[in-house]
Amino acid sequence: MKRSKRFVSELLSNLRDNIQRTGDPLGIKSVYWTRWAKGLNLPREGETVLLTARMYQMLPYIMQVTKLISSAKPLLSRGGFGAMVNMGNRLMGDKIIRLRALGAQSLRSKSKSALRGIVSALAAVDQRPAYLYEDEPYSGVLLYDLGLDEYIESHISKVYGVLKSHNVRKVIGVDPHTTFMLKEVYPRYIDNYDIEVKHYLEILSEGGEALKKSCKKGPEKEFVIHDSCYMTRSLGIIDQLRMVTESLGITLLEPENTKSDTACCGGPIEYAFRDLTEKVSRTRIQELSSICKNVVVVCPICLINLSKYEQEMGINVCDMGELLLGALQVSPGNGLDRPI
Amino acid sequence: MDLTDDEMTKNTLLKEIGKCRACRFCVDVCPAYQATEWVESMAPYGRLQIIKYLLNGTLDEDDPLVYSLYTCLQCGRCDLLCKAKGQDLEVSNLIRMGKCLLSQGLVKGKKNEKV
Q1: Which domain covers residue B64, as residue numbers?
Q2: CB atoms within 10 A of CB B85
Q3: Can you tell me the distance from the alpha carbon of A193 to that of B18, in angstroms, rounded to the nearest whole number?
Q4: ipTM value
Q5: What is the fold of A215-327?
Q6: Whole-angstrom Cα distance, residue A158 to residue A144?
Q7: B84 touches chain A (CB under 8 A)
Q8: Is B113 inside a domain boundary?
Q9: Residue A102 burial (C-beta neighbours within 10 Å; 0-12, 13-18, 19+)
Q10: Which residue from A minimizes the CA distance to B66?
Q11: pTM check: above 0.80
């Protein structure tokens, strides 16, 4: 709590500068968000696009950034040092974060599998959206969450401009935060907003029996579900997730706080208040693991916050996309058109 | 007299916060409140009171108040309870609007920078 005012000030200023300078909340200039799609040969243009908004791909980097912020917190809270850290971030931060993120193999693998699972499941219901690769923008959700509204408008205009320049008419979101931004926040800033926005679970649940038919019959498995706050309370996507898991032949167990009454994973404040996040996430994972050792989540922020307890508690935390990949029995290393 | 966007936001916030009936049902469900072992300034009701007193000048922004507002998870569980109890305030959005006014003073390079 000590020196929170200066600390928050440094973080807000850094975030604003990063987004204005690079379009990326972490200030990373090099394209780190397209590796998951290597070998898939997804179309680069199309009226319907899959918008990852870099959220899953960002996970290994977020992990390193929160560690760095946490260790530099005493410095950031002091005026002169804050400016030095900021300068260091501009000059070297990009490289340091990228180098340290190389070690986060598990998260890297989870995020790749999740995205590939989503694409293969969409293909199973005859949806083959385009992917913008290097041109894919970040949604700006962190600006919104932190109340940096005066900087949102210009960012949203840029993102909308990118989508329109690619003639996008429909967006398929893979995470609840981006889907919420494009569906609920963007229309407040763009006159005559004309992009249809859907979450991939909505599309899969509308696909009827197609997904079920594509799934290979495996051993029956039980998972406890951790619903996402934004997904349930802001987007109302509750039954769709349950319909999809049923198609996969998975038995879903409900914890005490579930559906629209789900409990937060603590992720949204991890960027600054790691101690408090730790307390919130620990409470939630204890609640979930007391029901079942297999936990399924549907949000990258929940994935990073709850999967850190895997070793300590002997549990398995999976993203819904990973389950889809497993059920469709597609190798994460191969093209999706080559099931194994 | 034309009001600026900030003044309109302040008026809206004060008007909406004024509708709170202090039933405190939002307090117990807040994950940050639970994690900080029952400190009411870390709960939605407490945060709304902080915003109210910051706006009417009773309080000045300081470290504990900034900590309280920026540790809101924006999870929206308080909204659900407020609706269930018949008041239907968008509590988490009011806190976000409060943060929005505060962020203008905290972000560097602004003429109203207060840090």
Answers
A1: 5-20+27-106
A2: 14
A3: 34
A4: 0.91
A5: Rossmann fold (3.40.50)
A6: 15
A7: no
A8: no
A9: exposed
A10: A5
A11: yes
